[in-house]
Backbone:
């Protein structure tokens, strides 16, 4: 007997993103660039803890653990015969729809549905879900559609009950009541290697009072979605019609055609290098071939979706202008913005023009880059932070999703050109709050001179601003509070929403901004990510290739390093410089290469997925001392490369300027 193909809440969510995805999901023959290990993603955002914490606020519930649909339905129906009952992971189904409700509370003929989300919520915000015109804010739609679908299924399957729907989320206004609460939710493996959360037997009422999760009724928003007044993009079908359409096509395993759109840029069903050769299919290619009549050769040409930070993509796609080769200057309208260097629109047109002219040469704003570099004070300090934001705070008085800065690396370039990995910091203490020690260590590293300090993107500035606010608000006695705050002000710029405003005398230089305004290499394909810029400049600079093809890094007579010995950063593979990040030791031995690549594949703002996942594993997962030490050593090497990458980019720019001057 064939297994029934239910439309579940995760499949419904997928279909709201793009109906065609329903056909590709769960099929091993199609490439899927999402994480295979869902626990890794949950670790990164704290989601694995928040679900089990939510259950603690509804004690005495019955947990339905079986993954078998029929068994779960039978257990749920049996429990619903009771007049009052709380069920975790309740299974509810119609002929074609199936959900597992996080928490379902029955009281007589009333059912209360609670969907738990690893997301913060401000209970004091006015109209938190609504835009000024009454439609639902885009940032909340996926969450509200999720719970609306579940409420719909319950109403269809159990019409005899009155159903109320709620989201349960981290309360931004709540303070954690006790120290060590997050350590009472640990990640463990069973004999079969299956991961689950183990809740400590020492969890007390004091840990849960007051709660740090809030319950928000969303019945009004559900009704708005059902009525089609939520401002959703698809107004041609009602909510019920969409559910029926998705369910019918999923049940029959038939494809729902969807037009090419900007949503295609985030499609996970595509093949990476080598995957097609191994037999995997690209769902994205299938869609585009069906919609556009494209052949395989057409996919070798970049598209409008590949243009950096381009906001006219949707309009051009609707007009049938898809390929980058078809774009004109009138489509972009490049114009200066009265700031040094190149504007965003000029950079977009530069990317397009270089592709159309098959021009692979590097563009460099020589005068402005040289002027910028002339303003820098030696020694030059290159720093990089690794951070995370945890749902359940580490300490009493902390709020959900307060940031944790757990690691930094620091390289110095001296005026004579010598380089050294000068220092680092890594806190792996379980349940510790490292932020103030983090700043103390950073201060000790940077306070000995007035050299320029470099970051890559705004992340370091934002996090130091956050720690500044933590220091200001902390009611405890902190002997060096003023010194730490003064240091933070000296190397940062206040964020826009800060009560205080300042620009420090050593305000960090953002290399990401320099890349965007003064430097473009077509090999980056429009990206400004350090993990695209580094390989590009290594491949274009003979100076860097000559210097770092020798094992001088960490050598006794070479570049001092705290984690590498006799290391060679430049290795040539198939005629190109191999990506230095690919040469590092594998951070995790128990996950697939694919998942590691996804975790390490960051965007221009460098979200540090691999590092924060490693930190979360060391915080919450049961592991041996050997495993912990191997992850610690890998973290140190990855972060050291981040700042060494900044050094090599700087050296590459300096070499480019010297070449320009010689010409």
Residues:
């Amino acid at each position: 007997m064939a297994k029934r193909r239910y439309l579940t809440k995760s499949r419904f969510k997928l279909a709201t993103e793009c109906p065609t995805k329903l056909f590709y999901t769960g099929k091993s023959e199609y490439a899927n660039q999402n994480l295979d290990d869902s626990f890794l993603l949950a670790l990164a955002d704290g989601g694995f803890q928040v679900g089990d914490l939510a259950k603690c606020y509804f004690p005495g519930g019955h947990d339905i653990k079986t993954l078998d649909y029929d068994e779960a339905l039978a257990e749920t129906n049996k429990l619903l015969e009771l007049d009052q009952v709380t069920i975790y992971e309740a299974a509810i189904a119609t002929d074609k729809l199936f959900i597992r409700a996080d928490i379902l509370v029955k009281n007589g003929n009333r059912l209360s549905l609670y969907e738990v989300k690893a997301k913060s919520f401000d209970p004091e915000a006015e109209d938190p879900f609504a835009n000024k015109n009454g439609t639902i804010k885009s940032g909340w739609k996926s969450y509200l559609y999720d719970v609306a679908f579940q409420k719909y299924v319950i109403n269809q399957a159990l019409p005899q009950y009155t159903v109320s729907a709620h989201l349960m989320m981290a309360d931004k206004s709540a303070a954690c009541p006790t120290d060590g609460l997050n350590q009472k939710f640990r990640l463990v493996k069973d004999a079969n290697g299956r991961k689950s959360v183990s809740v400590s037997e020492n969890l007390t009422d004091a840990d849960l009072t007051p709660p740090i999760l809030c319950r928000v009724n969303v019945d009004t928003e559900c009704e708005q979605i059902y009525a089609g007044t939520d401002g959703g993009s698809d107004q041609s079908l009602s909510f019920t019609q969409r559910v029926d359409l998705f369910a019918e096509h999923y049940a029959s395993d038939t494809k729902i055609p969807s037009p090419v759109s900007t949503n295609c840029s985030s499609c996970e069903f595509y093949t990476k290098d080598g995957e097609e050769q191994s037999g995997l299919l690209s769902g994205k290619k299938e869609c585009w071939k069906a919609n556009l009549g494209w052949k395989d050769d057409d996919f070798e040409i970049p598209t409008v979706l590949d243009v950096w930070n381009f906001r006219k993509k949707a309009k051009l796609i609707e007009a049938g202008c898809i390929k980058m080769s078809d774009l004109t200057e009138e489509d972009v309208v490049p114009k200066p913005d009265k700031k040094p260097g190149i504007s965003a629109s000029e950079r977009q047109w530069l990317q397009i023009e270089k592709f159309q002219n098959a021009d692979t040469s590097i563009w460099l704003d020589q005068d402005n880059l040289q002027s910028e570099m002339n303003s820098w004070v030696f020694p030059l300090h290159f720093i990089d932070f690794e951070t995370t934001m945890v749902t359940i705070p580490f300490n009493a008085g902390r709020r959900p999703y307060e940031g944790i800065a757990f690691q930094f690396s620091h390289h110095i370039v001296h005026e004579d050109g010598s380089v050294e990995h000068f220092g680092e910091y890594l806190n792996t203490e379980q349940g510790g709050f490292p932020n103030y020690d983090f700043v103390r260590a950073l201060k000790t590293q940077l306070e000995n001179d007035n050299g320029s300090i470099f970051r890559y993107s705004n992340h370091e500035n934002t996090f130091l601003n956050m720690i500044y606010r933590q220091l200001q608000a902390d009611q405890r006695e902190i002997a060096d509070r003023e010194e730490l705050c003064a240091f933070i002000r000296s190397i940062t710029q206040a964020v826009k929403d800060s009560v205080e405003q300042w620009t420090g005398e050593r305000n960090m230089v953002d290399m990401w901004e320099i890349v965007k305004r003064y430097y473009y290499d077509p090999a980056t394909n429009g990206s400004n990510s350090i993990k695209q810029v580094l390989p590009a400049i290594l491949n274009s600079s003979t100076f860097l290739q000559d210097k770092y093809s020798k094992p001088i890094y960490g050598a006794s007579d070479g570049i001092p390093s705290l984690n590498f010995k006799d290391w060679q950063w430049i290795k040539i593979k198939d005629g190109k410089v191999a990506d230095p990040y690919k040469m590092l030791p594998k951070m995790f031995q128990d996950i697939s290469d694919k998942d590691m690549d996804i975790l390490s594949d960051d965007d221009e703002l460098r979200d540090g997925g691999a590092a924060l996942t490693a930190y979360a594993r060391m915080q919450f997962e049961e592991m041996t001392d050997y495993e912990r030490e191997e992850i610690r050593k890998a973290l140190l090497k990855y972060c050291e490369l981040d700042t060494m990458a900044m050094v090599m980019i700087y050296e590459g720019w300096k070499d480019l300027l010297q070449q320009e001057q010689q010409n």
Notes: The chain has 23 helices and 17 strands. The radius of gyration is 27 Å. Confidence is low (pLDDT under 50) at residues 603-607. Residues 417 and 651 are 9 Å apart (CA to CA).
